[in-house]
Amino acid sequence: MDLPTAWNLNDKSSYLMDSSGLRVLRLYYGPCAIRANHPIPPQCKSFYFEVDIIDKGVNKIIGIGFCKKKSNLNVMPGLDYGSYGYHGDDGKLFLYLGRGRPCGNPYGPLFSTGDTIGCCLNFTTNTVFYTKNGINLGIAFRNIKGSFYPCVGSMSQYCSLEVNFGSRKFKFAGNAE
User: Fold this and answer.
1) CB 100 within 8 Å of CB 55
2) What is the rounded CA–CA span in Å between residue 11 and residue 13?
3) Which pLDDT value is given to residue 173?
4) Which residues contact 39 (CB under 8 A, 6 or more apart)?
5) What phi and psi values does residue 122 have, to the nearest 5 degrees?
C-alpha cells in the first residue's frame, strides 16, 4: 500500500514550480494546485499531513485539502468537483458538489506566513479535521468516502509552501483517530 510521500511533479498546474518534491513555489498569476504522488488508501484508518506556509505571497490566497484524481488543478481546492479545501485568506471551507458556484462556509482562523496547517482524513468515521499550529480546529467535513489525494493550491503570486507527509515530527501531537 503506497502512501503519499511527495508532490507529483507531473500532476500539477503549469503555474506551479517545485524544487524538491515537498516544497511548492508559485510564480505566476492564476489559480493553481498540485496533487500528491499517491492517493490515500481508504484502508488506512486515518491519514494526516501538514503544510508549512513559508511565504503567504502577495495576497495569502492559499487552499489546503484533498481531491479526486480527476479534479481540475487549475482551480483552488474545493472549487472543482471532487475536491475539498480550507482557505487561508478567509478561513472558509469549500466543497464543490456540482450545483452552481461553490461558496465557502465559515470554519476556522485565517492562516499566513509562519503557520502550519494540518489535514486529517479519518476513514473510520468518514470525517476530516484541520489543525493550525498543532491545535485541532474541529470537524470540517463529514461523509468522506473514496480515494483522495492530498493537495494544495494558491492564487497568491510568490507563495511558498512545504509539506510534511510524516518524514519529520508533526506539530499536531494529538490523536488523528
Assistant:
1) no
2) 7
3) 86
4) 4, 69, 147, 148, 149
5) -105, 110
Residue 98's Cβ-side half-sphere holds a number of Cα atoms within 13 Å equal to: 3
CATH for 7-164 is 2.60.120.920
Q: Is 176 left (phi over 0), alpha (psi -120 to 50) or beta?
A: alpha
**Neighbour count for residue 100 (Cβ, 10 Å):** 7
| Residue among 105, 94, 38 nearest 62 (CA) | 94
Distance (Å, whole) CA 150 – CA 32: 14
The model's confidence at residue 18, banded by pLDDT at 50, 70 and 90, is: low
Q: Grid coordinates standing for 69?
A: 484524481
CA trace torsion 35, 121, 97, 159 (10° rounding): -40
Distance of CA 162 to the CA centre of its chain: 11
Contact 85, 76 (CB under 8 A): yes
Q: Which residue has the cell 503549469?
A: 14
What is the mean predicted confidence (pLDDT) over 132-146?
A: 96
Q: What is the pTM of this model?
A: 0.93
Residue 64 CA to residue 85 CA, distance in Å, equals 5
DSSP letter for each residue of 151-164:
EEEE-STT-EEEEE
